[in-house]
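Chapter summary example: a protein plus tetrahydrodeoxyuridine.
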Amino acid sequence: MSVAPDREALIAAAREAAGLAYAPYSKFHVGAALLFADGSVVTGANVENASYGLSLCAETVASAKVLSSGGRGGLIAVAVTGGVPGQPGRGATVTPCGRCRQVLNELAQLGGTDPLIWCDGENGGLELRLSELLPHAFGPANLG
Ligand code: THU
């Protein structure tokens, strides 16, 4: 079974996840919501660290939750949102960082999908396929 992806619902889930971000250093709260073919949604938020470079992005946290729970594919859509709470004017569209594109690709390639990536933001945000954000990706399929 494969559900019809609901953009507004997935962005709402990402926004709720962003409310749980642990981002005391950057103050930039990011939420990600991953939608699977069975209709399940897994969310994540960024988790920063006093040793700044160890911080984890929201998309990476969500992907790790899935893989460490036994999920191995079926990823059909991802919503990402971010901003500084209380500063709505700075709500620039957030696209997944380079590392997160690679992390999401692992999950996508395992199930042979090319998920939609919905980037929340002012002026309607952006809708892209993961393959547009990360063309010619290296993933599990390359390891034979
Ligand atoms: N961040 C994410 O969670 N996802 C991204 O794709 C971009 C950046 C986080 C990392 C850091 O905690 C904060 O946003 C500022 O860079």
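Key point: Residues 98-111 form the longest helix (14 residues).
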